[in-house]
Amino acid sequence: MTGTEKWKVRLEATAFTASQFPEPGIPEVAVAGRSNVGKSSLVNRLLGSRLAHVGGTPGKTRSINFYGVEGSSVPFRFVDLPGYGYASRSKGERDKWSALIDSYVSDRGCLSLVLHLADFRHGLLANDRSLQDWLDALQLPVLVVFTKGDKISRGARRGTLEKYIRSGLRSIDVPIITSAEKGDGIDELKNFISRHLSEKHTVLPGKSTAE
Question: Smaller CB count within 10 Å for the chain: N or C?
Fold first, then answer.
């Protein structure tokens, strides 16, 4: 991959309950991260469209949003999960979101990869560790993606990344450092997703990519 592939993206479904999830059938790549980690900004930069709502209030996203993506090596769905951790919503709402996320992650057979977003300035916090433990127990492939990489000087990025790796994290490859504002790491992340889908899903005539 050269990083020049153009993805065509459309919103397929906005789900507030499990019954609203689209039928499985193609691979899905989900993105998860703490509230206020810059997830919506990164999703928009990655998909090349302002589809995800960007707001100043953490916990704004209350649904699971499914985006159909064509133009990659393998057609797939990009799944934007609600942020976890601190959110300016009631505990009842947060519990409801947790149940919705659990119903998706635990039972979605076509889930091919989880992108775990973490703020590069802070590394993995307690809630991030809990998410990693949960995904590991489900035996789901996880790639750690650091956001807001531009907030750390270029000269300090390598050392910071190595420090986080030494501290222990679960990632199927070296974490990718991104910046939604500057565009850093976006092509690298797109290439990784395409390569992962190509290696994991073989398309045969008359067959679904999920088979």
Answer: C
Per-residue pLDDT of the chain (211 residues; tens, 9 = 90+): 444 578 999 999 999 999 999 999 899 999 999 888 999 899 999 998 777 655 444 445 578 999 999 988 899 999 999 887 644 455 555 566 678 888 999 989 999 999 999 999 999 999 899 999 999 999 999 999 999 999 999 999 999 999 999 999 999 999 999 999 999 999 999 999 999 999 987 544 444 444 4
For 4, 21, 30, 106, 146, the CA distances from 111, given in Å and listed in that order, are 25, 13, 7, 9, 21
Q: Residue 136 carries which side chain, given as an amino acid letter? A: D
Residue 205: inside a domain: no
Residue 210 lies in a domain: no
Range of the domain at 145: 8-200
